[in-house]
Amino acid sequence: MKTIIEPFRIKVVEPIRLTTPEERRGLLSAAGWNLFAIHSDDVIIDLLTDSGTSAMSAEQWGAVMRGDESYAGSPSFYRFEAAVRELMPFRHIIPTHQGRAAEAILFSIIGGPGKVVPSNTHFDTTRGNIEATGATALDLVTPQAHDPDEPYPFKGNIDLVRLERLLGESADRVPVVMLTVTNNAGGGQPVSLANIRAAAEIVHRHGKPLIIDGCRFAENAWFIKCREEGQGSRKVAEIVRDMFAVADGMIMSAKKDAFANIGGWLALNDDALAAAARNRLILTEGFPTYGGLAGRDLEAIAVGLHEIVDEQYLRYRVRTNEYIGEKLLSLGVPIVRPVGGHAVFVNARQLLPHIAPLNYPGQALAVSLYELGGVRACEIGTVMFGLKPDGTEQAAEMDLVRLAMPRRVYTQSHADYLVEVFAEVVQRREQLRGLRIVSQPTQLRHFTARFEPLP
Ligand SMILES: Cc1ncc(COP(=O)(O)O)c(C=O)c1O
Question: Which H helix or E strand runs over 418?
Fold first, then answer.
């Protein structure tokens, strides 16, 4: 088979400033060894997130010019709404400025002390928004997900037995059940259509709504097409419609699988819940036909939703990460397998066994990738999840480093450069040191904590 090429040409370029390791050591010290505090023009390859970092297409930029900025009833909103409904046929589609705003609105209404919100794995902002109301965010991912080497094709699945048990024992405490597709915090792993349907059946039998966190819905559908029996000949758009047909609503960050730089939405079928959400939206985001976005953003999302289900794009997208994963494995770098949709997750705890989890092996690896190669990645481990609401600290289940691939941004030679940086890290791995935290906030500490390398 021929090389799976980037299925686009480059029309506009952004220069990359090539910094030196000496410069980067100074920048790391000034940033308190927190990569979120590094300026992006001091980064060579930015894999911090795939969120909001997509390259927009010529069609999207064209649509941006068509954006109608009317306060109420903008045609841009109706184009946005139609594009969402084409794939996700919910009754109420409520735009927000990004995904976490949709989460905050939903959980401010249905959360609260004593409530329990299960999911396969909550993303950090979802967990934060649930816990901020006093409710408990509960992860019920399938047991295969706990083994980074297990090649199970749907490691994002929710554990149906534990879900059934939870609802059987304490349904009165559960306002909604969630499913994150793909499962970002769990390694970008997909949820099968069979699992979505079975979860919906259980949830509905207990009289509860199922809400999908659909940030990476198209990548999830592509995996269903490639891996699930009986789905191979179906169109991705059809699979997407099936995924959402059994849900009662969704939260969405359009910064992922809508190729937009900003945006999101909350979609619901329940009229009363939607009315409460719109009231809240008006207080916190804006009028329901713009919801914290400009008309031009709504247009970019509408076109992006059409482009994201293109199967040539999805084939190239998933192959890029597989390619990086294969090269890393050949260097002896342990990664979560199979490779996820939007990112390669490196098992830092296994790569750096001499660094104890509470000295943050994931952060140590991320810092070293930046120092040696100007590559910015994201720790998904004890820094991100280790701080408990009562202020105590516990090692996360895994210490991973996420190499999140922005959509349509980097080429194969960027991927090859990344692999070369890893080769250097592997060579020096025994010299890498852990870190300690010198200051941190009470929630979502990975964004603003400051670190110091251990001697
Ligand atoms: C699975 C998942 N849910 C929710 C969010 C929050 O979306 P946003 O960053 O647009 O607020 C993210 C963002 O990374 C995510 O990956």
Answer: helix 412-428
Q: Is the CB of 51 under 6 A from ligand 1?
A: yes
Pairing of strands 378-380, 400-404: antiparallel
Q: Is the CB of 123 under 6 A from ligand 1?
A: yes
pLDDT in tens, the chain (455 residues): 788 999 999 999 999 999 999 999 999 999 999 999 999 999 999 999 999 999 999 999 999 999 999 999 999 999 999 999 999 999 999 999 999 999 999 999 999 999 999 999 999 899 999 999 999 999 999 999 988 889 999 999 999 999 999 999 999 999 999 999 999 876 789 999 999 999 999 999 999 999 999 999 999 999 999 999 999 999 999 999 999 999 999 999 999 999 999 999 999 999 999 999 999 999 999 999 999 999 999 999 999 999 999 999 999 999 999 999 999 999 999 999 999 999 999 999 999 999 999 999 999 999 999 999 999 999 999 999 899 989 999 999 899 999 999 999 999 999 999 999 999 999 999 999 999 999 999 988 999 999 999 99
Task: Output the CA 182–ligand 1 centroid distance in Å.
Answer: 11
DSSP E strands in 169-261: the ranges are: 177-180, 210-213, 249-253
Rounded Cα–Cα distance for residues 99 and 84 (Å): 15
431 burial type by CB count under 10 A (0-12 exposed, 13-18 middle, 19+ buried): exposed
CA distance 191 to 158: 8
Residue 213 CB less than 6 A away from ligand 1:
yes
Q: Is 253 in the pocket of ligand 1 (CB under 6 A)?
A: yes
Smallest CA-to-CA distance from 349 within 432, 437, 444 is with: 432
Element (H, E) at 96: strand 92-96
Q: Calculate how far, in angstroms, residue 233's C-alpha sits from the geometric centre of ligand 1.
A: 30
Distance 448 CA to ligand 1 centre (A): 17
The protein residue with its alpha carbon nearest to ligand 1, atom 8, reads: 99
The ligand 1 atom at the shortest distance from the C-alpha of residue 253 is: 10
Ligand 1 atom nearest the C-alpha of 255 is 10
**Contact present, 45 and 268 (Cβ < 8 Å):** no
Atom number of ligand 1 nearest to Cα 51: 14
Q: How far apart are CA 274 and CA 250, in angstroms?
A: 12
